[in-house]
Structures are given as structure tokens and as C-alpha cells.
């Protein structure tokens, strides 16, 4: 039978899934789901005497902050954050209602089951457990339930950092997504040893626009400065280019641990093949080996018989720690001097120490339930709200502990139809998270 902590964690995750908090990225269509979810969390905290503050950056875009005092007055506070919004769904692609929180064959289905109402429900259950049992954690714990992460966190974590930084006074580290889930450590399918990945770094996220300009003309009279042709050359150059491998500390630690466990060299020459042998883990880690710039949107003329004076392409850029200037220089060299590059949103990568004491805390907490489990740093190829908190000097780590079956790819559940999570993994998450937050 599940404990009260485990039972509440599961129930809270289900309750949160049923509160539709879809973030379309368009203000007029988002509604008030995030505030309704934050209000629901506030009520659950108030039931056990935990005070909190609900803050709306704009109507309906609510975030909730609560602080639990720790016993060590000299220790930096720990921020524990989860976002309440979820990405949109195409209901026709789901076999279970996306906001029904159905349980079938030991799996909980619903938008947010992994990204990331599972953690929101879990840390809420842990906070209530501490209050009921009179448990005082070692450090101050700041619980943050946030809006807008799925559209960059501008009206959630980003807004709070800019407008309410005092809420995070004394915080030195943070725990959140995307990590903590188990993956096979060794190749032998009969060997059940697992690695639990902890994101110690996150790639930066940037958008840039390439723009070519020429002379407008009739399509029957080709010009030497056709903006579409020049832009197409630049886009092709960017799309075909592979930036060099950069062995960040997080990547190198991952390669060292998995190389020893699997007998792989991970040399520059064998890196791609060795990573490919890791199965579904390869797609996650392979994207962290180099900077990327991906053309995603093209915009030129709208009449076939007119050569447009201007053509543009938008790029999605993912940047390794410390590589901003190198990427800018490389992009300029690729497209040439006759293409204008205009930077849009630009968030640099985050990087936290791979050997900080909190890593030992994570390992000790995992070992109680999984004595053979190994916590392994890695670099997340995407980004989370940790990028905003990094502006306050907070080192962010991605670690939502989940022990899952060997062939269950947790990362593949993010934004997927029929998003689901094993119920047993949620119970595991509640137990391990309680240990982490009590002792960190």
C-alpha cells in the first residue's frame, strides 16, 4: 500500500492534470488556467498551515511562491520549481483524454504527466508531508509553481526575477526539470543497473533572422542580386553545416561514466558511433555535443512573377556554455557579408558545477531505493526556467527522480500524444524527492 506521501503525490498530479493550463503562446487564447492551478496549490498548502503568495504577472498568468525555513541558518536556500502550464494537444492523436488523468495498466496518462505536473504534484505532497510531520529541512526551501515556462517563462520565472527578486533571497541552487529519470547504464538487457541523469547545464536558446536584400524586378528578367537566391544559399549553408564538437564538463563526465560502464572510447573519431550504441539515450546526449543553428521559417515574395526585394529566414539556435561569440562568428562566416543577421531573443546557456555537494545528496537519496543506481551529469539540449534564475546567480540542476522500465524513454514523453508515466515511478519520485529536500 502506498504511504500518505505517495498517495497524495499521485492524487495531486491527477488533480493538476485535470486543470487545463494550456499555453498556446498567444495571450488572447491562454485563459486563466495557470492562476486557477496556482490557486488550487495555494489551498492545498494552506490546509497544512503553509503560507504562500500568488502573483499574477498579468491576468490569468499566476505563479505561486512559498518558503519553508530550514535548520541551518548559514546554508544557502534551495529553490524547487515546477511550471504549471502545458503545451497544446491534438486530441485526435490521443487514445486517452489528455486532461482526464486516467490510469491504465499501471500508467497515468495526461498532458503534464511528465512535463511537468508530475513534479508540481510531488513537491506539493512533500511540502505537506514536512508540515504534517514537523520535519525541518536542513536548508530553507523556496517552492515555486510557475506560469509560462512553455513559452519561454517571460510571464513566469522571467517576470519574477525581474520584478520580485526578493522572493529568492539567499537562494544558491535550484532543482527542477529535465533529469532524474533512469536510463540503462549497461548494454546487457539482463543487467538492470540504471543511470539517473542530472542536468548540470542547459543549452542556450536564441533566435536570429537572416535577411537578403536586392532589387525588385519582374520574374521574366532575372537579376544578379535576386534576394531569394542569395538567401537560399545562406540557408543551405547553415542547414548543412555541423559545428565542431565541444567537450563541456557535463558532456565529458557523462562520457567518462558511460564509457567505463560500456567499454566505449568516445574518441572524437568514434563519438557518433559510440553515442548511437546507447539507443534512445543517444538522441538526447548527441544533441549536446555541438552548437546548432536550424532554419525553421522562410519569408519572401507572394507573387510568382515578381522577384522580391527582400527575403528572410528565421533560425532556431542552441548554444553550448561559453560559445555565444564563437557561434556568432561561425554563423557570420557561413552566410557571408551580404546577408544581414538580426538577433532576436537570446538566452545564454547555463552551467552549474558537476561536482557540487548537491550531486552527492542526489546520489545518496537514489541509493536508498536503487543501491546500484548511479547519478550521472549531462547537458540538457533544451532549456528550462533555470535560465532565468541563473541571472540571480542561482545554479540550476534538472533532477525529477523517476525509476522507469529499461525501455521507457522519459524524454520522448515531453510534448507527445498519450504522454504518460508509470504510477510506480511517481511513488519512487515522492520518496526520493522527500529525502533530497530534507537533507540537501
Structural class from helices and strands? alpha+beta
Name the beta content range: 15-25%
DSSP summary, beta strand count: 19
* Arithmetic mean of pLDDT: 95
Distance between the termini: 28 Å
The number of helical segments is 13
Oligomer class: single chain
What is the radius of gyration?
23 Å
Major sheet size, sense and barrel closure: 6 strands, mixed
Which range best describes the helical content: under 10%, 10-25%, 25-40%, 40-55%, 55-70% or over 70%?
25-40%
Low-confidence stretches: none
Domain Peptidase M20 dimerisation: 201-327
Pfam families: M20_dimer, Peptidase_M20
Cofactor: Zn(2+)
Keywords: Hydrolase, Metal-binding, Zinc
Q: Helices, strands, pairings?
A:
Elements: H1 4-17, H2 27-30, H3 33-46, E1 53-56, E2 62-68, E3 77-83, E4 103-104, E5 107-109, H4 117-133, E6 141-146, H5 157-163, E7 171-176, E8 182-184, E9 194-202, E10 204-213, E11 217-218, H6 227-240, H7 249-262, H8 271-276, H9 281-286, E12 292-299, E13 306-307, E14 310-319, H10 324-335, E15 340-347, E16 350-351, H11 357-369, E17 374-380, H12 386-389, E18 395-398, E19 420-422, H13 423-439
Parallel strand pairs: 3-6, 3-7, 7-18, 9-17
Antiparallel strand pairs: 1-2, 2-6, 4-5, 5-19, 8-9, 9-16, 10-14, 10-15, 11-13, 12-14
Helix pairs in contact: 1-4, 1-13, 4-13, 11-13
Task: Explain this structure.
The model has no long low-confidence stretch (mean pLDDT 95). This protein has a six-stranded mixed β-sheet. Strands 8, 9, 16 and 17 form a four-stranded mixed β-sheet that branches. It has a four-stranded antiparallel β-sheet with strand order 12-14-10-15. Helix content is 32%, strand content 23%. The chain has helices spanning 4-17, 27-30, 33-46, 117-133, 157-163, 227-240, 249-262, 271-276, 281-286, 324-335, 357-369, 386-389, 423-439; strands at 53-56, 62-68, 77-83, 103-104, 107-109, 141-146, 171-176, 182-184, 194-202, 204-213, 217-218, 292-299, 306-307, 310-319, 340-347, 350-351, 374-380, 395-398, 420-422. The chain is α+β, with helices and mostly antiparallel strands. Strand 4 and strand 5 (107-109) form a beta hairpin. Helix 1 runs antiparallel to helix 4, helix 1 crosses helix 13 (423-439) and helix 4 crosses helix 13. The chain starts with a helix and ends with a helix.
